[in-house]
Amino acid sequence: MSAAPERPEKTDRAEPLLWSQAPRRWWRRLLARLRNYLLAGIVVTAPVGITFYIVWQIVDFFDEWAAAFIPARYNPNTYLPFSLPGIGFLLMLGVLVAVGWFTASYVGHSLMRLGEQVLRRMPVVRSIYGTLKQIFETVLSSSSRSFREVVLIEYPRRGIWCIAFVTGPTRGEIAGIRPELELVNVFLPTTPNPTSGFLLFVPRRDVIPLSMSIEDGMKLVISGGIVVPETMTEPDSAGAQEVPRPVVVEQFQKQPS
Predict the structure, then answer these.
(1) Mean pLDDT to the nearest integer, 230-247
(2) C-alpha R_g of the chain
């Protein structure tokens, strides 16, 4: 009679496996927490640090500029054991206020008109000066609504909406081509660099004005939709009404066959 085969002895191999997985899970959880803490720290410190760095660079630039014009005897940094930042920036503000006060007077206004007449006679300088002056007068004018209105337009085709900014009513030759449309100048910025974009001439009826401020609109554009203004609320589905669908570019309606 043959002997029965010996049964393999039971081993505890499964137990060390379970015990070896526990440190790995703990290590993964620790790495996940450290990553979240790192991202939270970057989100908190990066905007503050970059803001202070930019402000410090601007103040330092004006301080270096003012050091070349302020005599050493009148410069407080000559007598102080440390550098006093902000002197150049305050001096620049004072110069701008003095220039504005002088140009508001009769003599200053006359000199400014004489200087503009000289600049307008120069072939290259007159185009640069005229364009820059018109831009600054339009943007900084308190009575103008240029670049003070955020709108929603449909571009580049039906069903795609974009955030844009109205820069003023269309005038001149372009407005005379289709006067019945009441065209407005609309600046469509690109993301994340809002300094570049497209200039569109859009009928007023195809523009949907928004209640958000210009700063909130810029935040929405620069962040690529990540930073949503607090004023934007979800519409009520029960009482929501269908919004008219304006079309900005008419050539997209009928594609050539």
Answers:
(1) 49
(2) 32
